[in-house]
Amino acid sequence: MILHRRSLALAALAAALGATAAAQTDPLPSWREGPRRRALLDFVAAVTTQGHADFVPPAGRIAVFDNDGTLWVEQPAYTQLFFILDRIRALAPANPAWPQEALLRAAIAGDMPGVMAGGTQGLLRLAGLAQAGISPEAFQALAAEWLATARDARWNRPYTALVYQPMLEVLALLRAHGFTSFIVSGGGVEFVRAFSEQAYGIPPHRVVGSSFALMPGEEAGRITLTREPRVDFIDDGPGKAVGIARFIGRRPIAAFGNSDGDWHMLRYTTEGPGRRLGMIVHHDDAAREYAYDRQSHVGRLARALDEAPARGWPVISMRDDWARIFPND
Amino acid sequence: MILHRRSLALAALAAALGATAAAQTDPLPSWREGPRRRALLDFVAAVTTQGHADFVPPAGRIAVFDNDGTLWVEQPAYTQLFFILDRIRALAPANPAWPQEALLRAAIAGDMPGVMAGGTQGLLRLAGLAQAGISPEAFQALAAEWLATARDARWNRPYTALVYQPMLEVLALLRAHGFTSFIVSGGGVEFVRAFSEQAYGIPPHRVVGSSFALMPGEEAGRITLTREPRVDFIDDGPGKAVGIARFIGRRPIAAFGNSDGDWHMLRYTTEGPGRRLGMIVHHDDAAREYAYDRQSHVGRLARALDEAPARGWPVISMRDDWARIFPND
């Protein structure tokens, strides 16, 4: 009887810690059997099993995820670019001089090749016009409002419905095993923060991203912060290692990316001592999503793909490894 | 019998969630009865009681704490300055030209007025010489090693023993009520991260602070990050509002500070909509700690103190409100 009572109490304890669900059901139902699924489960078991040679205490269980192309769709263009173009169109009537400029004419017309012809400088100029001059809070509200109504043309679904179900399962698996996960995105930090909590269960303070400078001021007796149309941090390439050190302050033990922009993050993570996991999402499923790597203007993947075997980074085949792509499939 | 079993299970559940201790014992044993203790408990009860007009869901329960003078002692000088001077002395033999410079002679001799004569520029120069040229990880290890051995002259205790017991109780109270707490310090972010988890239970990613630029590079086939002797962010004054927006991404509902460097943070927090709490630690206990405010070169408190009544910021009297100052008292 004593034993029975104790086991009941232990069961409640286990439930409170979220362990029961993980033990009773498959934590990765959208992952097909194979080496990538096994790499994930083996890694998590190794670093979270007390007494295992690779055991890592919870404080060290830091995982980082790229966003565009790793957690949600990034084709035919980054979602934030669609947001920027919609904003430009919405602001155009109040800015009658804009159409005199070729770049802005292209943006207002939704002419993507015309927009791309402006290069990085052109994109940053559009980003500044569309996204600056307001507070981070007002910007997040705008982005959230847009995300609630805008729809991807191919699937006719909100962009936040185009997150990858198998990656949501990885996030949940890590959460259930005491990991703290972060998004480390080349996208704008406030844009990602506008949906990260709802879409991924990742709160704003665990999103690292690119940013505009914030200018403090005062208006009507209140402190104000205003987004300036001036980039102060690019969280891409080597910037991802810098962003991790600056915002997280601890080297991750697991990293997930999909492009050469994640190469530094994958290396910074897996070059640390002890057991590490670096994984690449390879877009090789044109039927269910997209197929692209070396030649893509968005999410180009070449160097990281070539080096993956030597660096021990499992390459996830969306076609072979994922039984399901989106939550609503 | 069924009920008995269920209550056992519930007790285990409650213990797992840390609720039992909070319900059974006084959460603020080092706080004397009075308006400041009541302000704290009333605020926490209001924002965490479902159905209360001021209820805030857990995701919005963000609290921010200044460090120097709010969570630990900052007199007779910031602890990090003692670290910098010890580092300069340790590095001096390898830098024979240093004593030709008055500032460095003063630093090596531990001549504090001589060091202060160099002003902010002098301090930043010493900070750069003492703390740059290495990785954030190596720097944190150095700082942790120093903190493990260095001792405050007045109490002959490690600096990490000079944290304020009543504030540890506030951190624990908030933690037990679903808050996420952050340190927002004018000190160097990696210095604070070296002890925040052990001293306060605050992991590195929840420390916002001033920082040197980080330079990414590569050495011996590995990604490197190197601290440059160049400040890239000052997390003080208006910078605290910027740091909160940049790192936390959500306006806090509670802020704790002790100096005019926290005025913007207190305002930014308490100017938000809904119920807010801004509190000031007033150092008015020369016998048990220090007494200083308007005239102090460290932790000057004038404007925030003058405006506290009108802004509704309770001012904590260390002498009257705190029954105990340090954990080992």
How do the strands and helices of this protein lay out in sequence?
The structure is a homodimer of 329-residue chains.
Chain A: H1 2-16, H2 19-24, H3 35-48, E1 62-65, H4 79-91, H5 102-109, H6 112-116, H7 119-131, H8 136-149, E2 151-152, E3 157-158, H9 165-176, E4 180-188, H10 189-193, H11 196-200, E5 207-219, E6 222-233, H12 238-248, E7 254-257, H13 263-270, E8 277-282, H14 303-311, E9 315-317, H15 318-321
Parallel strand pairs in A: 1-4, 1-7, 4-5, 7-8, 8-9
Antiparallel strand pairs in A: 2-3, 5-6
Helix pairs in contact in A: 4-5, 4-7, 12-13
Output the CATH topology of the largest domain in chain A: Rossmann fold
How helix-rich are the residues of chain A, as a percent range? 40-55%
Distance between the termini of chain A: 48 Å
Shape of chain A: globular
Give the rounded overall mean pLDDT of chain A. Answer: 93
Low-confidence sequence ranges of chain A: none
- What is the CATH class of the largest domain in chain A? Alpha Beta
CATH architecture of the largest domain in chain A: 3-Layer(aba) Sandwich
